[in-house]
Amino acid sequence: MKVMKFGGTSVGKPERMHQVSQLITKDAEPKIVVLSALSGTTNALVEISASLSHGDRTLAKQQIDTLEAHYRSFVLDLLKKEETRTKGNALVTEHFEFLNIILRISFSEALNKDILAQGELMSTKLFSAYLEEQGIDHLLLPALEFMSIDANEEPQLPAIRAKLTHLLQEHKDKKLFITQGYICRNAKGEVDNLKRGGSDYTASLVAAAVHGTVCEIWTDIDGMHNNDPRIVEKTIAIKQLSFDEAAELAYFGAKILHPTCIWPAQQENVPVKLLNTMEPDAPGTVITKEAGSVGIKAVAAKDGIIAIKIKSSRMLLAYGFLRKVFEVFEKYHTSIDMITTSEVAVSVTIDSDMYLLQIVRELEPFGTVEVEDQQSIVSIVGNEIAKTEDVLHKLFSAVSEIPVTMVSYGGSPHNISLLVPSTNKTKTLQLLNKGLFGL
Ligand code: ASP
Ligand code: MG
Prior knowledge:
The protein is an alpha/beta fold.
């Protein structure tokens, strides 16, 4: 069984859906196809939800109508036969009636999740209608019947596997399954989701659950690149990465892959391929257990980082100090990205300011606390970086003119991280592209 996931732009136009239908029927291997919402839809739903939460029903109604008009013309373009077009229109009606009913209900978080789920529900149903029109045998598998998260909002692979295996058993005669990315049920049984961009996560979970042969993530660029193509002029697609390298890159900024989506595939050792719908024959990036070659493979940057430095002479020769510091972050469910220590100070970075004030207040009894916001983590990712000849020299000569705030090296054999003021991010990425890759 092969898993193929197509993102919003890959299904965002009727002609793209046509392309997807060709890609999923190229070979005879059984498949589960995971789809995102049409591009722009989830953002539109977020806006509708925001209007409702502010009590602005008039605006919400306008936004719903605009979105509906988009789907009406999509159906007209996508479906040509009367029977399937009627079906397409009926399902659009059904989902927009739901959104219109919501206008009259008081807003809640559960309702918000229901609203956000409409995108994937519609994209998969429309695609299913299209496949039907093309005479392509398939089954629509509702993600809400097998994809779930627990009370900590974590997907539990064994539970997902049990439900999905059962569903597939019931439809042994089918070779092609279509399902929704992103959406799931939570511990209360309500509709929920795997967070923005979560369709990749769905695909990886599904691939791990069925022990798939491969998990293909189809987007609109040709794999993971060695640097951010929006910032530096020349970048190259990386042919091969290990799961660990890919996880670091996804977390530290490479937008192509959802950061949490690596672990399920890694756990079951299912290779992940990043492929380009517009260039289906390009090799893309293959992510497997083995790292392949030794050396630096990519750099990526993550913005919105806050550095917190705690200085205390009480840390000198003291034990238990770090535990107390970490407990504060734990209490506020705030994860630490980078950490460096000296004998009398510890610096950490976080990527959310949600509880910053509380955290600082609770750290203050330990010593002087300094906060620096608007920082970026620039991560250098590769395999056995420390074994790469001359690596530190190359790295630091490349960025010699940058005021680096923090350095983290040695925590992982796959990563060196630098913290730089965000105003220096672009320059840092450009200098590293030259200094490390000669590009
Ligand atoms: N449609 C969702 C989003 O835009 C999930 C996804 O595309 O992966 O975030
Ligand atoms: Mg997406």
